[in-house]
Amino acid sequence: MSDTLGAVVVGTGFGVLTHVRALDAAGIEVRALVGRDPDKTAKRAERFGIEHATTDRRAAFALDGVDVVAVTTPPHAHAEVVLDAVAAGKHVLCEKPFARDLAEAREMLDAAQAAGVVHLLGTEFRFAPGQALLTRAVRSGAIGDPRFALFALQLPTLTDPAAEMPAWWDDAAEGGGWLGAHGTHVIDQVRTTIGDITRVSATLTTLSPRPMTADDTYTVQFETERGATGLLHSSCAAGGQFVVATKVTGTAGSAWTQGDEVWVDTGAGPTRVSAADDLPVVAPVPPPSELLHTTYDMWHSTGMDLAPYTRLYTVMRERILGHDVPDDPRAGTFADGVANQAVVDAIRAASATRAWVDVPR
Predict the structure, then answer these.
(1) What's the number of CA atoms in the CB half-sphere (13 Å) around residue 356?
(2) Phi, psi of 231 (to 5 degrees)
(3) Which of 50, 77, 178, 342 could disulfide-pair with 73, CB 3.0 to 4.6 Å?
């Protein structure tokens, strides 16, 4: 196989703001852009020097020199695009939330495994320095056995009912909502840092005055396979100040993040964990300002996800070429998409029944 790989990006929103740029930075040439609006697709393809712009994804997958498909559509469309790409023999990276439900997630995993293609999940923040370093610190035993974890984030974005969001984002049936958009990242972080979640109790609510069927706020208690407990809370419609806290407490101390820094206290006072050479802090590179129009666009305006996604696509490139890649941080796959979706489904069931719910294995 040639060392020059080609890609198709399906989706002209986040797909262009981040994925096109990250693929290029990872040495994978974007050869086609697929979108629903032919005019928008053509203009955005031209802006990034992409040769082919089309609304026909199967035609794009059939182009010469296409090895990779990046699926960045709304979540309700993930399965159909992934299954088409896998059927065409393409390696696939799929955004999160991975699926609308566990059955759909399993269908995509089964198809990718049967086809023997490389399949990765868009959990790019596994490669963010702060998250990766916290995971290493906890898994190294620096704080003993994890006993409790807190993951909290509050944003005021949707306190404004006029905030411009894609139609699917407000619609629970189409995979919209904050649990899928943000909570799946945190669920994945819990699983990689302290172990699989086995049981949840949860409340999903909507604080925003906008007409939504999806959630904008979640509060989840959880238990893990190793006996740890924790609290996940986040809202993108809580007015006032920005609130963020990520902290894991174990039998021998606590570890937490402060931006890209990680700190540990085992009883002698807070100590900063030394930065790792393989986890450099890279300055964010914002996407072109002329592409930022909506509130949803502005969530991605800092470019903070470009460096982690570049790392993720570099792993994908090396795996496709048959090269060995480091297993720490480990890139998420469709198997992680299934495991994360099982937790999401259990959270939704727990919120609906107001009862503790076991996470399907």
Answers:
(1) 7
(2) -135, 125
(3) 77
Q: Report yes or no: 207 and 216 within 8 Å, Cβ to Cβ.
A: yes
Please state, in angstroms and rounded to a whole number, the distance separating the CA atoms of residues 269 and 231: 24
CB 200 within 8 A of CB 357: yes
194-228 confidence digits (pLDDT tens)? 999 999 999 999 999 999 999 999 999 999 999 99
Q: Three-class SS of residue 94?
A: strand
**Cβ contact 129:210 at 8 Å:** no
Short-list 133, 126, 93, 135, CA closest to 112: 93
Residue 282 φ/ψ region, left for φ over 0, alpha for ψ in the -120 to 50 degree band, beta for the rest: beta
- Longest C-alpha distance within the chain, in Å? 62
Work out the burial of residue 304: count CB atoms within 10 Å of its CB; fewer than 13 is exposed, 13-18 middle, 19 or more buried: middle
Cα–Cα nearest to 336, from 202, 137, 201, 189: 189
- Read off the tokens for 231: 């609290």
What does each C-alpha distance from 143 to 56, 97, 130, 131, 208 come to in angstroms? Answer: 52, 31, 17, 16, 38
Going 113 to 172 to 308 to 26, the CA torsion angle's sign is positive
Q: Are the beta carbons of 260 and 125 closer than 8 angstroms?
A: no
Rounded to the nearest 10 degrees, how much is the dihedral formed by the CA atoms of 97, 24, 192, 205?
Answer: -30
Whole-structure pTM value: 0.97
Q: Is 69 helix (H, G, I), strand (E, B) or coil?
A: strand
CA 68 vs CA 16, 21, 86, 92, 194: distances in Å = 15, 15, 10, 6, 32
- Tens of pLDDT, residues 313-349: 999 999 999 999 999 999 999 999 999 999 999 999 9
Q: How far is the C-alpha of 85 from the C-alpha of 80, rounded, in Å?
A: 9
